[in-house]
Specification:
Elements lengths: L18 H6 L6 H15 L29 E2 L6 E2 L2 E3 L2 E7 L19 E5 L10 H5 L2 E8 L9 E6 L2 E2 L1 E6 L2 E7 L5 E5 L10 E8 L18 E2 L3 E6 L2 E11 L7 E11 L5 E9 L2 E10 L4 E10 L13 E9 L10 E10 L4 E3 L5 E3 L2 E3 L1 E5 L13 H14 L3 E3 L6 H10 L2 E5 L7 H4 L2 H18 L5 E8 L7 H17 L5 E6 L16 E5 L18 H11 L4 E6 L4 E3 L7 E2 H15 L7 E4 L5 E2 L15 E2 L12 H12 L3 E2 L2
Parallel strand pairs: 25-26, 25-34, 26-27, 27-28, 28-29, 29-30, 30-31, 32-33
Antiparallel strand pairs: 1-3, 2-21, 3-14, 4-5, 4-6, 6-12, 7-11, 7-14, 8-13, 9-10, 9-12, 15-16, 16-19, 17-18, 17-20, 20-21, 22-23, 23-24, 24-37, 35-36
Length: 670
């Protein structure tokens, strides 16, 4: 069996210092603090109280013993980083402690002492290496960041942005509540009130994070491992009265040789207590664009919409992912009757690619007028040592492994992290972008408020990520009931309309379980432009045993093509578990997986109208305790369908997939 060396993933885990080492490192002046630090270190190593619901503390990502001097001044993010110009990194050193049922009553939210807190490096999953049932269930923990503001004008507004926190968050600044949020995988922002924020001296930002999920949550419980914590980057942003609330840069390409039309949709928010006269300008590559001026009322927003023509654009594609630098600059001008000049007040940077994506009348998926036949991989962000709190090095390795495989597309079941999406842009990888509306029971979709929450997630995803050229489909859900009812039909219609209103340049899709027994659902799926089929013929039995015989795959695909005329059909999942050597007829062996992928890919190759196929998944990841995945000899909680093991070894099927992917023409003339 051909194998590659194991990947040694970078871990930020720093073992807690011993008591002796802690005491030896302390001066006489800080002896009192040292005693508290030792006590905190001992407390951090104790298991939670039996009634706390917290998982046993293993080597949580980035946790060390308590230390002195944790107050920091955030450092500026580089000017060429995607997002607002005046941002500061607020990750790195934070403090962490578990609730154990006493956090609120003991005033953790207003704590300024380090006693009982342990340092942690953010991003962080506190249960990164804990595979217990309690870990999966979730618990409550507290994060704290002690920081001083960078030098700034007195009129500045400060905002903290979290790219992803799981799951429910309540935040305090210097002991005062400042906001809350629910749901992972999409960013949220909290304004730091001027009446509470200290312009000089230490500020204490405290988060109470509850990682427990309910069946009605988005995402709901039980889909992938439930990593608790601040899982992605944190920023501090300075705003001079008016800031960027959302930025969409949407290129349109009428034909492969046409000039491009660049549509700007930029929402600005006035954080001040007085109306502001605002002017907005942009550059797209070498093209200068004036988006105009407007008076933005106190506490209000204003959206600037403008279209500009880019002559003879260089196109973005998997083979040539050309990107244009885009800048947005806002200036504040004189108030009515004032004589002052316009002055710079904000800057935003992103990178954009010109390409078209659409569905032909015959149901083929077209990129820049050429027919897509992509081959891709599924991806769930997970690391043996860091959990879902991936670092930049792991992000780059995942992208490199997908490219090395010959893949030109990635699908996840939730919005990927900002860095992974930027890497996809740079490397020409197509993204199926999905919100975590996954396997939702019909009784929840029957609730209009639930549907509204799901559509709100879709809107958030589009407003956050629509400037990425790599994203080719907005997916509204994964594996809802295979035989839809009126409530699911209402959700599909509502979601598709919302997506088209915010972004008319991309098709909207849905991933469904490929069950022959479900039949043709053309009526309920009518609003969709793309239907993704999760294909497990020859692996799972299906609801009535109709997947047992893999030879039914070809006929099923033909039937779906006949049913959904005019829609693009993709295979959004196919895969088989493999965790051991053994005969080809034995499910769960490497040989079975090799035979499985070759059979399915050979069938896909006979369907010239198929828009693409995604192997599920690139790498193994944790699912939940007791996970079997159809494997008679599973290794729970590991999802063993990955082509790369959790320890980083390439399985034999990786090379079979690589050979076929590289030999497949993934973009061709229609």
């Amino acid at each position: 069996m051909q194998q590659a060396p194991s990947r040694a993933e970078l871990a930020s885990v720093v073992p807690a210092e011993s008591i002796g080492e802690s005491l030896a490192a302390v001066t006489q002046r800080s002896l009192l603090f040292a005693v508290a630090a030792v006590a905190a270190t001992l407390l951090a190593t104790l298991p939670p109280a039996s009634d706390s619901g917290a998982p046993a503390r293993k080597a949580a990502s980035g946790v060390t013993g308590a230390t002195e001097g944790l107050v920091t001044t955030p450092q500026a993010v580089g000017a060429a980083s995607w997002g607002p110009g005046e941002r500061y990194g607020l990750g790195g050193s934070w403090l962490l402690r578990f609730d154990r049922g006493v956090g609120l009553s003991r005033g953790f939210q207003s704590s300024t002492s380090t006693a009982g807190w342990s340092p942690v490096s953010v991003p962080s999953a506190w249960n990164a290496t804990d595979q217990s049932k309690a870990s999966m269930t979730g618990t409550v923990a507290w994060y704290r960041k002690d920081f001083e503001l960078p030098p700034a004008a007195a009129a500045s507004t400060w905002i903290v942005r979290f790219e992803s926190v799981n799951n429910r968050v309540t935040a305090w600044l210097n002991g005062r509540p400042i906001g809350s949020h629910a749901g992972a995988f999409l960013p949220f922002e909290l304004a730091l009130p001027a009446r509470v924020l200290k312009t000089h001296g230490a500020n204490h930002l405290v988060l109470r994070v509850d990682s427990r999920r309910a069946a009605s949550d988005l995402p709901k419980a039980g889909l992938w491992w439930n990593y608790g914590g601040i899982l992605r980057t944190v920023y501090l942003e300075r705003v001079d009265r008016v800031g960027f609330a959302s930025v969409q840069v949407l290129p349109r390409l009428p034909c492969p040789t046409c000039d491009a039309s660049i549509e700007f949709r930029v929402m600005l928010r006035n954080y001040s207590s007085a109306p502001q006269n605002v002017r907005l300008k942009s550059t797209y590559g070498g093209l200068a664009v004036d988006l105009g001026a407007a008076i933005v009322g106190a506490g209000a927003t204003s959206t600037f919409i403008k279209q500009a023509t880019l002559p003879k654009p260089q196109l973005w594609s998997p083979a040539s992912p050309h990107l244009y630098d885009v800048t947005l600059d806002l200036a504040l001008g004189p108030q009515a009757g004032g004589a002052e000049e316009w002055r710079p007040a904000g800057h935003y940077f992103l990178r954009s690619g010109v390409r078209s994506i659409g569905v032909s009348p015959h149901g083929t998926l077209l990129l820049n007028g050429q027919q897509l036949n992509f081959r891709g991989v599924g991806l769930i962000e997970d690391s043996k040592d860091l959990g879902a709190a991936l670092n930049d090095s792991i992000d780059r390795r995942l992208i490199a492994e997908a490219k090395n495989l010959g893949a030109t597309a990635i699908r996840s079941q939730y919005p990927l992290g900002e860095h992974l999406e930027e890497l996809a842009d740079e490397n020409g990888l197509l993204l199926w972008s999905e919100i975590p509306v996954d396997k939702i029971p019909p009784r929840y979709l029957a609730d209009r408020s639930f549907r509204d929450r799901a559509v709100a997630k879709l809107r958030e995803n589009i407003l956050t990520n629509s400037s990425h050229p790599s994203i080719i489909v907005w997916s509204i859900a994964n594996e809802l009931a295979p035989e839809p009812d009126a409530a699911q039909g209402a959700y599909i219609s509502q979601a598709v309309s919302a997506a088209h209103a915010l972004d008319p340049t991309r098709p909207v899709g849905l991933a469904v379980a490929a069950y022959p027994s479900a039949g043709c659902q053309a009526h309920y799926y009518a609003p969709l432009e793309v239907v993704g089929l999760n294909d497990y013929f020859g692996w799972y039995p299906g609801p009535v045993g109709d997947l047992k015989n893999r030879n039914g795959l070809s006929g099923y695909l033909d039937a779906m093509h006949a049913c959904y005329r005019g829609k693009a059909l993709l295979v959004t999942e196919f895969g088989a578990e493999a965790n051991r050597p053994g005969p080809v007829a034995e499910r769960g062996t490497y040989a079975f997986q090799q035979d499985f992928v070759k059979f399915h890919l050979n069938v896909f190759a006979t369907k010239p109208w198929l828009g693409g196929a995604v192997y599920w998944a690139l790498q193994e990841f944790r699912v939940r305790p007791g996970w079997g995945g159809g494997n008679p000899r599973p290794t729970p909680p590991i999802h063993a369908k990955g082509l790369i093991s959790f320890s980083g070894t390439l399985k034999p099927a990786y090379y079979d997939v690589q050979k076929i992917y590289r030999a497949t023409t993934q973009l061709r003339a229609p």
